[in-house]
Write a structure and sequence with these properties.
With 77 residues, the chain is α+β, with helices and mostly antiparallel strands. Helix content is 18%, strand content 18%. It contains 2 helices and 3 strands. Strands 1-2-3 form a 3-stranded antiparallel sheet, covered by helices on one side. Strand 1 and strand 2 form a beta hairpin. The termini are far apart. The model has no long low-confidence stretch (mean pLDDT 89).
């Protein structure tokens, strides 16, 4: 049985989460709890954070389970 990645979007980016890669460090929820939650479903709410902060946090994911993609390819952080 394959577990598919989940996608969460705001107007700027889409964040994907791959449960097969996640090591459950909870780094995302500890450091950016307005966006990443370990007790609320859906556990990712991109509307509660600034895109730049979300991208910084996604880049800190120790397993690479969180990734992001810009909707508009002309921007970068």
């Amino acid at each position: 049985m394959a577990i598919e990645s989940k996608q969460f979007s705001n107007e700027d980016i889409t964040v994907t989460y791959d449960a097969c890669l996640c090591v459950l460090s909870r780094k995302c929820a500890r450091e950016l709890s307005d966006v990443f939650s370990d007790s609320i479903i859906p556990w990712v709410n991109l509307d509660d954070g600034r895109t730049e902060d979300i991208i910084r946090q996604v880049k800190k994911c120790p397993s690479g389970a969180l990734q992001f993609e810009w909707h508009c390819k002309t921007q970068a952080v």
